[in-house]
Amino acid sequence: MTRTAILGTGAYAPERVLTNADLEKMVETSDAWITERTGIKERRIAAPGEVTSDMAVKAAIRALEMAHTRADELDLIVMGTVSPDMPMPSSAVAVQAKLGAKKAFAFDLSAACAGSIYGMSIADQYIRTGTIKRALVIGAELLSRVVDWTDRNTCVLFGDAAGAMVLGPSDAFWGSSSMPTATRRTSSPSPAGAACIRSRPRCWRRSRTRSR
Q: What is the CATH number of the domain that holds 121?
């Protein structure tokens, strides 16, 4: 039975850091208030002119490098985002063009926090049926430009970043015959988690085996 495996991951976060101390100067809040309720200490803010697809491409390049996959080998690009570059065409199409993934079909998925999980599930169906061999699943948000920075209840929660995964078929023991099942065993990589997986992929695979 063909299984779907995560072959590579990548993440990107903009350089500018907005700390809780910075927010104290913008709205009536405090580091203690934010930390107690969210655990967040800082968030990243995209540079002027930087758009969602730009962040997605940087994360995707890192995922492709880890997966030893060329962009022109991709068959599918699914991008989970609620903050696309524009209403249409989709940001996934922009990523396709910027990467040079000429044979991949691409579309956006608007599911907020669950976008990456739904994207993985969609890619999984295509891979397990043999329709495609390589899929790029991206979760990217540029929310700093839509957040109300005068609302202390919401502005402390959001920032800008992107994470990406390359999926493909595998007969290895750590592959999954059902991607939703795999996501129950281990979380999909966050930007921080993806960096950890890049540095210690063998540990990640062993942890998946122990969690079965």
A: 3.40.47.10
